[in-house]
């Protein structure tokens, strides 16, 4: 199985340091929850991990190879990506959008196996009823779930998701994270998920990476990475941390004066 490793990533954009010596890795069977306030550098880090940008310093290795040395097809066979903002809607059906996830394996046309994978993923995400609706005729949350379906159809050992639950109601947020946890448990994939909900991040991640002003300020199990001190330091809020039915609950109360 494939491991994604980043070492010493530094990036300056517009005269500001947005990534500062960031090192992390994710391998099979892990969910790394990437958290941090707005502007902390999560999306910038995700772009570097995917080989979509070239950091000023540091390296990203995918399966031991520099990610930017791999062809788009080789990369897409190893990492699926769910973007922060699904495309606004374009007149392509949900089915064909998911079929795009099979592109790294296809010749000029899909085979029966590709169609079967897409059908099965749409069933699993309860999207079969929308299969022949076009993307521009979907709600924001439905579009976001189709992007997740496309990533699952890609059947990669790694999945990187940038705020995949931002447009979802609480039921679909929970369903999405449970589905990722199942992928990790059943298929042994490795997941990096950037997410703002600290309770869900703590509950579903095997490790948390907390970014602040481009620096990794804490990394490890949620109980050590998410403390009242680290939350105060990064978000500027006073938070209470508790548990309900064994699930962590992290509630913000006061914004620090
Ligand atoms: N093209 C750009 N030009 C100038 N600044 C940029 C550019 N892209 C990103 N930045 C800045 O880099 C910083 C990190 O942005 P990034 O999108 O990685 O943050 P984030 O942690 O994903 O934030 P959010 O939670 O709001 O999505 C921000 O201050 C942002 O304004």
TrEMBL record:
Keyword DNA-binding attributed: no
Nucleotide-binding found in the keyword field: yes
Alphabetized SUPFAM superfamilies for the sequence: P-loop containing nucleoside triphosphate hydrolases
UniProt-recorded name of the protein: ABC transporter ATP-binding protein
PANTHER family listed in its UniProt record: ABC TRANSPORTER ATP-BINDING PROTEIN (PTHR42794:SF2), HEMIN IMPORT ATP-BINDING PROTEIN HMUV (PTHR42794)
GO molecular function ontology, one term from the record: ATP binding
Matches recorded under SMART domains: AAA
InterPro entries: AAA+_ATPase, ABC_transporter-like_ATP-bd, ABC_transporter-like_CS, P-loop_NTPase
Family of the protein in this entry: Belongs to the ABC transporter superfamily.
Signal peptide positions (record): none
Keywords assigned: ATP-binding, Nucleotide-binding, Transport
Organism in which the protein naturally occurs: Ponticoccus litoralis
Transmembrane parts of this sequence: none
Residue ranges occupied by any ABC transporter domain in the UniProt entry: 4-238
